[in-house]
Amino acid sequence: MKLKSIVLMAMILATTAELTSAQESEATPDEVLPVPGETTGLMTGERLVTLVKSIDVNANNQGNTWQFTFQDRPIIMIFDEKADRMRMFTPIGPESALDAELMRRMLQANFDSALDARYAVANKLIWGVFIHPLSPLDEEQFASALVQVLNVATSFGSSFSSGMFMFGAGDSAEENRKLLEELRKRLRPTV
User: Fold this and answer.
1) CATH number, residue 68
2) What is the pLDDT of residue 168?
3) What average pLDDT does the chain have?
4) How many folded domains does the chain comprise?
5) Segment 9-42, tens digit of pLDDT
6) By CB count within 10 A, which of 6, 32, 70, 190 is most buried?
7) Which residues constitute the domain of residue 90?
8) Cα–Cα dist 108/111, whole Å
9) Could you say which DSSP state residue 156 is in?
């Protein structure tokens, strides 16, 4: 395994451990928690784990935190049945790579082209992340979440897109038009 991969995996595992311990130490008021038996949701932690294992038979876990691979990219998923939440994320790169223009594009994309996935910064890394209530999640939404997280990560620095739809009132369509025009200029033969 290359040194860069080892360092990245160490950062992911450290971040996962920090996030898991932070989740476990946070007290949630009883009135915010769903009342047992009142949730009629579709998804449970057990079903979620079954979905993860169907994607990567080598998926591993530490409590309610699962790490698996999809399209050669490490994916981390954390769920909490009591809080009825799940979070799926993948590292994109070091936070130090962000300048003002990249930060601006990330925020624009969060408005219109990242769709349900989002760009985020935590623990000195840039992340592609999907956050959702656990119980109403179904298999199709889980698959969509996974594809969107993958796409925001792989399109970082170019289209900044989840690969799904684009909200028309934002700035990304214009940014993508500029990118296309720049490519057209490069591809036009000089006379």
Assistant:
1) 3.30.1460.10
2) 59
3) 77
4) 1
5) 545 554 544 444 444 444 343 433 344 444 445 8
6) 70
7) 3-19+39-187
8) 5
9) T
